[in-house]
Amino acid sequence: MLELIVKRLALGAVTVWLVSVVIFAGIEALPGDACTAYLERDAQGKLLENCRQSLGLDRPAVTRYLDWAGSALRGDFGVSVDGETRITAEVALRVKNSILLAAGALAVGVPLAIFLGVFAGLYRDRPADIVVSTLAILAMTIPEFVAATVLVLVFAIWLGWLPAVVLTPADAPALDFFPEFVPAAIVLTMVMVAHIMRMVRSSVIEVMASDFVQMAHLKGVPYWRIVFRHALPSALLPAINVVALTVAWLLGGVVVVEVVFNYPGLGRMMIDAISDRNLPVIQAITLLVAVTYVGVNLAADILSILLNPRLRTRLGRGA
């Protein structure tokens, strides 16, 4: 088992390295550079030269990549195109806000999705399952910006229960975002619950139809004991990877939702950086999101290995 975990960790490290190369090469392939994109019509003469020197753009690409990658490993993403703003500090502030939004959505969404998935799976093809599954499909197919707009229209404009947009500054304490972040969290929860619920439902149906569950029925084991002690642990294992993808999706910054509600998270920062042609910030956020995806999925793989009794048994026999 240890050898398999080490291999997964090594594969994750290689993946992160390859992603960093692709990100840096992609930025390099763009016409011009960060200074010409930022200065636009003023990109000439001494002003352009000073900008390139402050960002180190006058050095060879390989040298700049090694410096950038080495600094990123230490948590330092350099400075913005203005030559003064430290990117790490700004990104850390937005990451804190995105984590707040993600935590609110996860705290409600994951338990609700698991409950609905198990409920729908146990009552397969019955009216309750049909209703829950239909609502899940609707939540998956409705675009996020449509759901966000409808939510604002109903709960902010018509009923006046919730604020329409977030007006709290990005550097405010976490508690100051309540209740402004609630509408954004609701939209994210709707999408998240739909995806996880469908996976849990399919897993429950598959496990309940398996041979060992049928054998337990024949031996007279009580139904709910079979469900809670034997079926559910096996049925929930495949959902770990879906939850991991959801966490990475949330922490990476859901751009559409953050833009609609003006939420000062990582996704909103990315949009602002694109509008300002701030390539160093775009580069840093892209790498951070990629590392988040790789790290969370790697953690989910390792957790699946540790929690899967059949895999542990096979690995133990092979040792």
Q: Alpha-carbon distance between the termini?
A: 8 Å
Radius of gyration: 24 Å
Tell the overall outline.
globular
Number of strands: 0
Query: Quick one: CATH superfamily of the domain at 92-285?
Result: MetI-like
Low-confidence stretches: 315-319
CATH architecture of the domain at 92-285: Orthogonal Bundle
Please report the number of helical segments.
Answer: 15
Largest sheet: none
How would you spell out the order of helices and strands? HHHHHHHHHHHHHHH
CATH topology of the domain at 92-285: MetI-like fold
Helix content: over 70%
What does this structure look like?
The chain has 15 helices and no strands. The protein has helices at 2-29, 34-39, 45-55, 61-73, 87-122, 127-141, 144-158, 182-208, 211-218, 223-236, 239-251, 255-260, 266-275, 279-307, 309-318. The chain has a domain at 92-285: MetI-like fold (Orthogonal Bundle), CATH 1.10.3720. It is mostly helical. Residues 315-319 have low confidence and may be disordered.
Layout: helices, strands, pairs:
Blueprint: H1 2-29, H2 34-39, H3 45-55, H4 61-73, H5 87-122, H6 127-141, H7 144-158, H8 182-208, H9 211-218, H10 223-236, H11 239-251, H12 255-260, H13 266-275, H14 279-307, H15 309-318
Helix pairs in contact: 1-14, 5-6, 5-8, 5-11, 6-8, 7-8, 8-10, 8-11, 11-14, 13-14
Distinctive features:
single chain; 319 residues; mainly alpha; MetI-like fold; 15 helices; 0% strand; globular; disordered C terminus
Offer a concise description of the structure.
By secondary structure, the protein is mostly helical.
